[in-house]
Structures are given as C-alpha cells and as structure tokens.
Design goal:
Elongation Factor Tu (Ef-tu), domain 3; 28% helix; 6-stranded antiparallel β-sheet; 5-stranded parallel β-sheet; 11 strands; 2 domains
Length: 255
C-alpha cells in the first residue's frame, strides 16, 4: 500500500477483523496518539488488527468547496507517524459519495476488506450523513451488527483546552513554535523541493509559521541545523545550507 494516495471505500486492502479509529490525523498530535493507543489496546484485547482510517482530502475541503486547509504534514508523513505508533494507516478518500453514507452503511461498505469489531471514538466525535454516527447511535447499531464502541475522553493540554490540529495551526500562524511542538508532541514539520536561491516548492499546502527566521533540522544529513526564512508573502527559503532536491525539515525555534 502506498502512503501517497487514498483508497475509495470499495477498494480497501484486505485486513479482516479490525479495531478502528478514524479522522484526518493531520500532524498526528498527542490527542491523535491517545486515540491510537486506545485502538491498539482494543485490538489486542480482541485479537484483531488495529487500523486508523485517514480521511484524505481533509473533510472540511469537501464539505465547504473552495476551502483549503493548510496541512501540518502531507499524507505520507502522517501515515508514517501512525505506523510508528503501532497502528495500520489506511488512507480513505473522502468525497461526496462517502459523505452521503449513513454511518452504518459506511461501516458495512468496508466489508469484507475490513470487518469492524470495535470502533474507538471520543465523546464529541461523529461521522456519516449529517454526522448522525455518534457514539450513542453506533452503540445501538453495534448490538445488531456485531461490533462494540469504545469511547475515550479527548486529550486536553495543561490549560484544559482540547488538543486539535486547528489549534496547532493557530499556534504556528502566531509564530509560537514551542506551543505547537508541545501540542504535537514533536517538532512542527514541512517538506518540499529546494531550488534556486534555496526557495522551497511544496507539493502540498503547508501550515507555515508566521513570517520570520527559524532554526530547523534537515532530516537525514549531518550537520543538520539550518535557518529557514518565511517571508510575509509565505515564500520559504533556506538561508545557509542549500541542498538540492527534496528536503524534510523539523522546525525548532525562532532564530
């Protein structure tokens, strides 16, 4: 399975019985990892495989045509982080057809490739047509369809505010990298191809920090520390080392 494409619901890989969680998982932050850990535990207890359904494109872009959601990481990087957390990442194409399914039909449409035995959710989460697939509704459906629903509380930060990708994007837009890193549980990330003058060309719409100069580490080379300049026009350039080709960066702090 490739990490750079999403699958339609009728072409999913053959996994079998599974414990699943679902979402955009943008950035794979600490809140996501709590959901993943609960899913892995539920799978282990039932002797099934843990699966994260990763919606792509971002559901908000389908629900509100014309909207572009800046991403904390591209699909392949989010999938990599999910795998590192011990769960199988299955990118699922989110489109109008998927959106139109009621929650019960959504789950049954994945069979026989994925047969849901437990669905792990947070109390406020919902999916399916009109977001009618709440934990309460699905508990009732699961009694006849043969699956359980496990609900875990949404992870909050020290200020008791929920951790979310939207909140992390706001922290980045304000240039508060330490807060973004704390909520993520890892440094903010960007990747792209570096060309003339160190300018970046992105293959996705990145969630960038506020204009300024930042310290960053390039993955996979030594020495790795560089400075990154983000202009008020959102143009991004490396200021010192200028490797050719693809570059993956962990953003560390303001310079």
């Amino acid at each position: 399975m490739t990490d750079s494409r999403s699958w339609s619901i009728d072409e999913l890989p053959a996994i079998g019985e599974a414990a699943i969680c679902m979402g955009a998982f943008d950035g794979v932050h600490r809140g996501h990892l709590a959901l993943v850990a609960a899913t892995v535990t539920a799978a282990r207890e039932r002797g099934v495989r843990p699966v994260a359904l990763v919606f792509d494109p971002h559901p908000d872009e389908v629900i509100r045509p014309g909207l572009r959601v800046p991403r904390l990481a591209p699909l392949h990087e989010n999938s990599r982080r999910l795998r590192e957390a011990g769960i199988e990442a299955v990118p699922l194409r989110f489109d109008d057809e998927l959106r139109s399914l009621i929650a019960e039909d959504f789950l049954s449409a994945m069979a026989p490739a994925i047969r849901v035995r437990v669905l792990v959710m947070t109390p406020e989460s919902a999916f399916g047509r009109n977001r009618a697939g709440t934990p309460e509704a699905l508990r009732a459906a699961g009694q006849t369809a043969g699956f359980d629903v496990s609900v875990i509380e949404r992870l909050v930060s020290d200020d008791q505010e929920p951790i979310s990708s939207a909140r992390i994007r706001r922290s980045l837009s304000e240039g508060v990298l330490d807060q973004a890193a704390n909520l993520l549980g890892h440094p903010p990330y960007v990747e792209g191809r570096v060309g003339s003058g160190g300018l970046f060309a992105f293959g996705y719409d990145p969630a960038l920090p506020a204009a300024g100069t930042y310290h960053a580490d390039i993955r996979g080379i030594t020495p790795s520390r560089v400075k990154l300049r983000i202009g008020p026009d959102a143009k991004v350039a490396l200021m010192d080392a200028q490797p050719d080709g693809f570059v993956a960066l962990d953003l560390l702090s303001r310079a």
